[in-house]
Specification:
The complex is a heterodimer. Chain A has helices spanning 2-27, 35-53, 56-80, 85-104, 129-133, 138-156, 158-168, 170-175, 180-206, 218-228, 233-255, 262-282, 284-287; strands at residues 117-119, 135-137. By secondary structure, chain A is an all-alpha fold. The chains are: A mainly alpha, B alpha/beta. At the A-B interface, helix 1, helix 3, helix 4, helix 11 and helix 12 of A face helix 1, strand 7, helix 7 and helix 8 of B.
Amino acid sequence: MEALILTILLTSVPLIFAATGELVAERSGVLNLGVEGMMLMGAVSAFAATSVLGSPYVGVFAGAVAGAVTAVVFALFALGLATNQVATGLALTIFGSGLSGLVGAPFVGRTVDGLPVFAIPFLADIPVLGNLLFKHDIMAYMSVAFLVIVALFLNRTRAGLVLRAVGNNHDSAHALGYPVLLVRFYAVSFGGMMAGLGGAYLPLVLTPHWSEGMTAGRGWIALALVVFASWIPSRILAGALLFGGITIMQLAGQARGWTIPSQMLSMMPYIATILVLVIIARNRRFALINSPACLGRIYMQNK
Amino acid sequence: MNNKYVIAALGALVLGAVYWMVVGEKSSQVAEKASDKVKVGFVYLTTPGDHGWTYAHELGRQQVEKHFGDKVETSYVENVPEGPDAARVIRELAKKGNNIIFTTSFGYMDPTIKVAKEFPDVKFEHISGYKRAENVATGNIRYYEGRYVQGIVAGMMTKSNKVGYLASFPIPEVIQGINAFGLGLRSVNPDAELSIIWVNSWYDPVKEADAAKVHIAEGADILAQHTDSPAMLQAAEKAGIYGFGQASDMKAFAPKAQLFSSVNNWGPHYVNKIQKLLDGSWSTGDGPDHWAGNDWVGMADDYLVLTSFDNMPADVAEAAKKAAADIKSGKNKIFTGPIKDNSGTLRVPAGKTLNDGELFTTLDYYVEGVKGKIPG
């Protein structure tokens, strides 16, 4: 059971990264549906960099940069040229899947040494909990650290307040003298960096390979997670563990010989997503109070 | 920001990407014109870099080139998804003047049949399916023979009596493999159990690794796979347990974990069929349509080759060698009764051996020792 929980924790890490990043972007009022594309760019770049340069830490960095750069492409269109965010985001996913496949073609079938486990001294010696929580690779700690930082930033800092203001009412924020587009640009880039890190986790920790489309829908689950978390960072952790748990339990169910068809079990994460979306949509006070009012709305800066 | 520059820069980026894709597309297809050679086309599911299924076919193609030299010209298209897209690729190869086209995955079965109707003068060889036509032959390897030997090794090696298996899709060859593994397992260890995880993909390293980790978490100490990447063996290596490679030798990925690999050796089959085409004696064989016909070959002809038996005690290696020899000599036909399914019902009475047709049409159950139920 302990090993199973450990597997679930690791499966959740990419979701925590990507969803936390997207949450920041959405709190600033930008809906970037290109998470899947950014994750794939992060994954392929991390793998390529590690494969060529030999260090998984360089890979982590490359993944973050690639994700951010991909997000900047989105920002140029959606913010700079004020294009429709939904369409641009979808295009970014298609673009990211295609380009990552192209860049990654020479790397198919290669393998790398992934990130080593870094046990935290003393804490790792606690029975059970030590194994589960304090014997991970550095990125797993990073994902939770980022989540905490984002939560503090949004709720406890002035800059976080400005970001939320921009997301809730960009006209008022502009009238108060805040640089709406610049704030959104930073938020989107941060979102891209986090998606890139989430993607990088796949080839650096989960399996030391690159394969086309290896994120397999995790970007979309991350998007759903943001809504699931009703734009509150702490809830992302619970959501990611739930989705990670379903992903792994459908495999474990098969191994245990449950007689539910495996295709049915494979559908579970997606069915859960839809269910959660339906439940959330019906409970406005609980769910929508933190929903950014300007989410997805186009803002044109007056010259 | 000046929008004109942004548009110009993005335009250049898009053009560059398009150019790159066109060039990339070209470089993935080795081929050009020349007249009186036999032109041979291959359709690959993934890339030769998968180090599994497609890599084995690529080695076969290389052997064809080496064997025939100037007399043939080969080309391949990689990363062709199973389904409607495959028909487009196969048609393209036929239009380019290929004389014989090998389509190397189960999912190309219907597209191959469809395109073959449009090109009656071109020969098609579909690997691992069961549909044939005037100009469509089928060929396959008896993978299950190697899996029976794997079952014996697993049964003798396992300490937890739990063996994990990654399966791709519930098609005949995969079910044959699971059942052969189960028969081998139970022939040496009546307490061992085989549990199956369906990955629903041939090549998905993330899911394969996840499934392998789940098997390990559930207590399995030996893993086997009918999927194509080395991800499972790498997970086994990391966890300090053992497993079997698939389709190609995967020792390089897991030197301490790989017990052995069942390697598909396509070269002789391809050489044989192309030689027949050159001689004018190419045919689709005369077996009934629902099974692989005359070209279903296995360990006896070295079409399925087991790599060296590593990381196991001498007595286990000895038993494996003996089992392999018995299969080669035809002494052990594997699917010989009595065979019970996993609910205890007798499916094959003592003394009866399933023939090739029955292997395709009657195996709708798991044998004793395999947990669960065939999906769908």
